[in-house]
Amino acid sequence: MSTKGASLKGLLLVVLLVSHMFLTKEGVTSLPICHNGYINCQLSLEELFDRAVKVSHHMHFLSSEMFHEFEDRYAQGRGFIAKAVNSCHTASLTTPEDKEQAQQIHHEDLLNLILGVLRSWNDPLIHLASEVHRIKEAPETILWKAVEIEEQNKRLLEGMEKIVGRVHSGEVRNDIHTPWDGLPSLQLADEDSRLFAFYNLLHCLRRDSHKIDNYLKVLKCRLIYNNNC
Amino acid sequence: PPEKPTIIKCRSPEKETFTCWWKPASDGGLSTSHTLLYSKEGEEKVYECPDYKTAGPNSCYFDKKHTSFWTIYNITVRATNEMGSNVSDPHYVDVTYIVQPDPPVNITLELKKSVKRKPYLVLTWSPPPLADVRSGWLTLEYELRLKPEEGEEWETIFVGQQTQCKMFSLNPGKRYIVQIHCKPDHHGLWSEWSPEMYIEIPTDFRVKDMVVWIIVGVLSSLICLIMSWIMILKGYRMMAFILPPVPGPKIKGIDTHLLETGKSEELLSALGCHGFPPTSDCEELLIEYLEVEDSEDQQLMPNHDTPSKNTKIILKETDSDSGRGSCDSPSLLPVKCRESRGLPSALQTQDVRAKEKKGGKGSWEAQCTASEQKTLPCNSESTKSCTWLAAQLPSNQPAMFAYHSTVEAFKMTLNTTNVSTPPVWVGNEENCQSLYPIAETVYDDVEKISEMENSKTDQTTVQVRQNQHNDKSPFLNPKLMDYVEVHKVRQDEEPTLLLKHKENSGKTKKCTVPGTNKEYTKVSTVVDHHILVLLPDQRTQNTPVSQEHVAETSQNPHQSQAEKNTSYSTTTPSDSRRDASGSDYMDPSSFTPSFK
């Protein structure tokens, strides 16, 4: 009997080894593992929104920090804020200005608006990252933040397009977009003008990123949690 | 004209309305009115404050309709009096960044127990009522702080956007103060701290620990008490285990009381000895020397000062079982004062050794005349037994008796024919010393015992040397007598003879234990812890052996120890004892492993 048991064990061992060998081969792949948030190996809308909110939150945080650093360093006593009134290029986009407007707008419209704003900032952010080194003695922190924000914007844009693809019943509108023509102002020879141009750009960036973050949170609470965040 | 007013601050409590406060211009006593004007970004129109009253004096309240976000307000205040007016500096404000909520509300505490029975605190709260968190318009972050009630510094914990917190590290029994405040997620200002909340952790666990410790302490103290009590009670036994007592020899036929009364005649008659006490002609026996003639290894007793050598008294012991009642007892040191402890331990013979006088203690030689006895109780046969009463050694001296006895004398006396006088025991009569004839043979060679043959009846005088302290020399019966030698043999101690003696009696006990025969020296029993009962061998004789009470100096511990050694005792003259011991006897050889 002992020999029989030993032979069975050996057979089992062989079977295990062979199966392991087969399983680890290239040609044989197991099913893809779906992580949390995946439904049928596809990200759920909740997960998409959570990720979008995280990115937008971080983007606004970076832009706010960058603005404050710039303001503390270069804008003291220059009265830039007085001049930076109604100077954002995205002002033409009619976005909700208070809570009622945000709650009344349709979520699809709001999503399209968000997409429009994000697309509008695509270009300026690229130039900001490339032109910020022109600032005299620009601290390292501003520099890498500009680069980071530009990346975040791209990522958020991808996520938002996914969300819009899920939520939208109709086709995705692609027309909301505001061109930016502030590049020459960033390259002005006059330092004061150039600084104001940067100040203005950073100020508008901070504002718009905050708008996007706020809108996304409102949408998340409305669509995912049914106004019960 | 009035001075310029200044705008202090503008705040929004819920990100839906906001209020601005200004500091009115100091006027010179004239009544001054203030107006607040504002314009919004991108618009040229200037508006006036819609509500001066709601927020109190010198304030302007902007309701929901007049509040726009992501818009810069340009606010100014104008102070006007009779003299003129003055305008404050413009104040640019974006309402998005001036949100300062109210403190959180509904702070509740709950004590929960984790899996390991450790309690932790769960703190829950609610956002301020005005803040619209549900719709996601306003997102708040929370922070709490706590400190012990008597503490100085606060410990601040950032909680984030959750509305509960689990606290694990609180000490039971202490009181803590906890507070919470909140802030919008991006910009804005922290709210005021919530009202103080007191936390007290229950101490039930600590109480349990205390109870456990109390029980442990009580139990351990009880155990200590019991242990100490046991030590006290069994102390004697422990001592006996360590220092075994030397039992005194007990010789059959010797009545304790008789000895006490001092009627030697009766006693001796009981023993069957005649001619005892020795008469005056035995004065010669009162020599401090114990001269023993022995063919082999016989050593004369040196003077009492240095009883380094012990003559060996060989009790004839032809018995195979070697009732070691032979007189080859170790030298016995004379004992001056009887100490209770001295006696039992004195009898130790393992290898019979010369017992040297211990410092100061005189050893005395007992002159023991072995004379053959030929009486009933005395064994007329060969065996003579040296009985000697153990003299107690002084306390400081190990209970060893140095006996010097003449082996040969014993040998001689083995013959029962002419044994007339019992051996004489010499004891130290000094004060409490009871005398015991100490006839001790010290052997290096155990076989000496076997040499005890029936000797002729010639008398051998065993002179027991007395120590110098002895005033009275014990009487030594020159005649050979059979007597039982009682000694103890112990492995590492010199054999000593323990003789029973009366308390405080200075009498010389003289007793001859008539040895019956070789088997005489079997120890029967130990009676009363101090009487060794010897029995003659059943085969040979039924004569009761002379009894001798073994003085028991040591108490039980010694006695018990004595039992282990070769100790011989004679049965007491009492009949009962005799009867009791007559039936069986113990082979002393069992006690003396050393003997061959």
From TrEMBL, chain A:
Cross-referenced Gene3D superfamilies: 1.20.1250.10
Record's subcellular location: Secreted
Keywords, in A-Z order: Disulfide bond, Hormone, Secreted, Signal
CDD domains assigned: prolactin_like
SUPFAM superfamilies listed in its UniProt record: 4-helical cytokines
Domain of life: Eukaryota
An annotated Gene Ontology molecular function: hormone activity
Any single GO BP term: regulation of hormone levels
InterPro entries: 4_helix_cytokine-like_core, Somatotropin/Prolactin, Somatotropin_CS
Chief location of this protein within or outside the cell: secreted
Signal peptide positions on this chain: 1-27
Entry keyword annotation includes Secreted: yes
Example of a GO cellular component annotation carried by this entry: extracellular space
PANTHER family: PROLACTIN (PTHR11417:SF5), SOMATOTROPIN,PROLACTIN (PTHR11417)
Similarity remark: Belongs to the somatotropin/prolactin family.
Protein name as catalogued: PRL protein
UniProtKB/TrEMBL annotation, chain B:
Keywords, alphabetical: Disulfide bond, Glycoprotein, Membrane, Metal-binding, Receptor, Repeat, Signal, Transmembrane, Transmembrane helix, Zinc
Polar residues biased stretches: 538-574
Subcellular location, principal: membrane
Pfam families registered for this protein in UniProt: EpoR_lig-bind
Family matches, as SMART domains: FN3 (SM00060)
Gene Ontology molecular functions: cytokine binding; metal ion binding; peptide hormone binding; prolactin receptor activity
Keyword Signal attached: yes
Annotated Gene Ontology cellular component terms: external side of plasma membrane; receptor complex
Domain Fibronectin type-III: residue ranges: 1-102, 103-204
Cell compartment(s), UniProt: Membrane
TM stretches of this protein: 210-233
Signal sequence coordinates: none
Region of interest called Disordered, as start-end residue ranges on this chain: 537-596
Segments forming a coiled coil: none
Membrane topology type: Single-pass type I membrane protein
Cited SUPFAM superfamilies: Fibronectin type III
Gene Ontology annotations of biological process type: positive regulation of cell population proliferation
Role: This is a receptor for the anterior pituitary hormone prolactin.
Domain comment quoted from the record: The box 1 motif is required for JAK interaction and/or activation. The WSXWS motif appears to be necessary for proper protein folding and thereby efficient intracellular transport and cell-surface receptor binding.
UniProt family annotation: Belongs to the type I cytokine receptor family. Type 1 subfamily.
Protein name: Prolactin receptor
Organism: Platysteira castanea
Name of the encoding gene: Prlr
